[in-house]
Structures are given as structure tokens and as C-alpha cells.
Specification:
By secondary structure, this protein is α+β, with helices and mostly antiparallel strands. The protein has 7 helices and 12 strands. Bound molecules: biotinyl-5-AMP. The site of biotinyl-5-AMP (BT5) has 28 residues, from helix 3, strand 3, strand 6 and strand 7. Biotinyl-5-AMP (BT5) binds next to helix 3, strand 3, strand 6 and strand 7.
Length: 279
């Protein structure tokens, strides 16, 4: 849906003011990320544009930001609802020195940063739903879409896409999301300053990415575990060609989810959709 479709269907979408990037830059305390912003009122997908930039040689740390997306993407071709002037949609270009099999650690690192950022703005706990969702009170507040382009033996670049529902009222979201999604506005009943949230998020990402580059995922693991919302929970995991049912036990050093089957054997799951089960 385009920004004008959103405005006609959900009048609340007409309310927000454009992001003031000067305000974001003013006190931005970072080493590598947020060095340059590419800002759009409307775009197809910030991840697609960031990828084009990366292919043209854009530097690590450049950020693509849009007020709305007409083709906002989730994983596996799913849609990311991106109503205008109220939420955050951004993609960061990273050029990590990682072998391809460790690229999933970027998603885990980003989940830690995002959960910690959210913690600055709401009293409720932000839970990481492995691998790429941030939930509050069981509802999805934010999602991460990491797309890695690899050459043999190393990652060439990663597009780290993040969508956060900040000030968009969830009762104006499409019907099928109203029970499953939330926004900071819905959680706090007050509008959150998007510039402050964005600045904090980029700083937290910058810090966590620095930690990952310097010392690997191990030092970040306890912080990831502290936000892990599924520990001990019975889960169903849908893989492309298989379904696994068991109890979520945590993550392995490489970022794989550890699932204990009914026979007590622990399996490593690299990628998949996790559905929490009742018991
Ligand atoms: C994700 O995928 O959660 C990754 C979302 C990443 C979005 C960002 S925005 C900036 C950048 N540019 C892009 O084009 N994408 C990234 P996944 O785990 O596949 O979840 C997708 C599912 O989340 C959908 O099928 C819906 O059920 C739900 N969903 C869609 N829009 C939502 C929203 N705004 N808030 C909460 N849930 C949503």
C-alpha cells in the first residue's frame, strides 16, 4: 500500500510530522553507524535501496530511512505494514568481517540492541522471539530483516533492516494485525519522540556491532538470553521442509536455537518460524 492509500484507509496516518534528522545527528554518539542518512518520504523498501547502494560501493554505516514503504518486506516474501510519518523503517549497510556461516549473528546482535533501546522508552520488558522479532506483552512491536550477500569465504555486506511501530495506533492497522501487533504509543499511551528513539537505536546498534566485531557473539549472549522470551517454552518450529516440536532451551554460540525434543535430545535450529505452544 502507498502512503496515500494508508491515509485514505487509516486517517490517523495523516497525523505525524516528518523526522527531523538534524535533531538525530546533533547528539549522535557513534563510531561507525549513522555516518550518512539517505532519507525518503516514501520508498518501495529501504532494504532494496540499501542493497543498491551497497552494490555501488556505499560505506559501512550508511543508513536508509523512509517515512513509509509501499513494498515493506518481512522474511520469506511476507509484508511489513509501513504506514507513514509515525513509525521507523530503516536499513543499515554493514560490512562485517565474518565468515558466511556467522552472518546470522548480525540478527542476534541487532535484536539485543533493539530490545535494549526499547527498554529506554517503556517500562514493560521487551522479549526477543528468536530469531528476529521483538515482542512486548506477547505482541509484535518490531521486526528485523537481515539480508547477507556473501562471496566464498566471507560476507561482502549485510543489509540490516529494522521496522519499529512507534506512534501508529494499532487499531488503525489492518484487521489481521490488531491482535498480534503493538506500538510504543499503544503501550505507553503517549507519543514517543521518534528522533530520540532513532538516535538511541543507532547508538545501541553501533555499540553492539562494535562488541560483536571485537569479541564475537559470546559477550553478547548473556544480554540476548536476558531478553529471550521463549526459554523453557514449548514451541513448534516450521522449517522449509520439516516441523520440530520441543522445548526452547536457549541459543548456541553460533546463534542457532537449541530445542529439546520429547526424547531429551537437543537439536540446533538455524532458521525457521517459531510458534509458542500452550503447554
Ligand atoms: C519481520 O519479518 O519481522 C521483518 C520486518 C522488517 C521490516 C523492515 S522495515 C525496514 C526494512 N525494509 C524492509 O522492506 N523491511 C525492513 P517476519 O518475521 O517475516 O514478519 C512478518 C510478519 O509480521 C507479517 O507476515 C505480519 O504477520 C507481521 N507484520 C507485518 N507488518 C507488521 C507491523 N508493522 N507490526 C507488527 N507486525 C507486522
Amino acid at each position: 500500500m502507498s502512503a496515500s492509500d494508508y491515509r485514505s484507509i487509516f486517517p490517523a496516518a495523516a497525523r505525524g510530522a516528518p523526522l527531523d534528522l538534524a535533531q538525530v545527528r546533533e547528539h549522535l554518539d557513534v563510531k561507525r553507524l549513522g555516518t550518512k542518512f539517505h532519507y525518503f518520504t516514501e520508498i518501495g523498501s529501504t532494504n532494496n535501496y540499501a542493497r543498491e547502494l551497497a552494490e555501488r560501493g556505499a560505506a559501512e554505516g550508511e543508513v536508509v530511512l523512509a517515512e513509509s514503504q509501499s513494498q515493506g518486506r518481512g522474511r520469506l516474501g511476507r509484508r511489513w505494514e509501513s504506514p507513514p510519518f509515525s513509525n521507523l523503517y530503516l536499513s543499515v549497510i554493514l560490512r562485517p568481517k565474518l565468515p558466511p556461516d556467522q552472518a546470522p549473528q548480525i540478527t542476534l546482535m541487532a535484536a539485543v540492541a533493539l530490545a535494549e533501546t526499547v527498554g529506554w522508552f517503556i517500562p514493560q520488558k521487551a522479549a526477543i522471539k528468536w530469531p528476529n522479532d521483538i515482542l512486548v506483552d506477547g505482541k509484535k512491536l518490531a521486526g528485523i530483516l537481515t539480508e547477507a550477500v556473501c562471496v566464498p569465504e566471507r560476507v561482502e555486506y549485510v543489509i540490516l533492516g529494522i521496522g519499529v511501530n512507534v506512534n501508529y495506533p494499532i487499531d488503525s492497522m489492518p484487521q489481521e494485525l490488531r491482535q498480534r501487533a503493538t506500538s510504543l504509543l499503544d503501550l505507553t499511551r503517549i507519543e514517543v519522540n521518534r528522533e530520540s528513539f532513532l538516535r538511541r537505536l543507532i547508538q545501541d546498534l553501533d555499540r553492539c556491532y562494535g562488541d560483536l566485531e571485537q569479541s564475537g557473539f559470546e559477550p553478547l549472549a548473556p544480554r540476548w538470553e536476558a531478553h529471550f522470551g521463549l526459554r523453557g517454552q514449548r514451541v513448534r518450529i516450521e522449517l522449509l521442509d520439516q516441523v520440530i516440536v520441543g522445548r526452547a532451551r536457549g541459543i548456541a554460540r553460533d546463534g542457532a536455537l537449541l530445542v529439546e525434543g520429547d526424547d531429551g535430545a537437543v537439536q540446533k535450529v538455524i532458521a525457521g518460524d517459531v510458534i509458542p505452544l500452550e503447554t
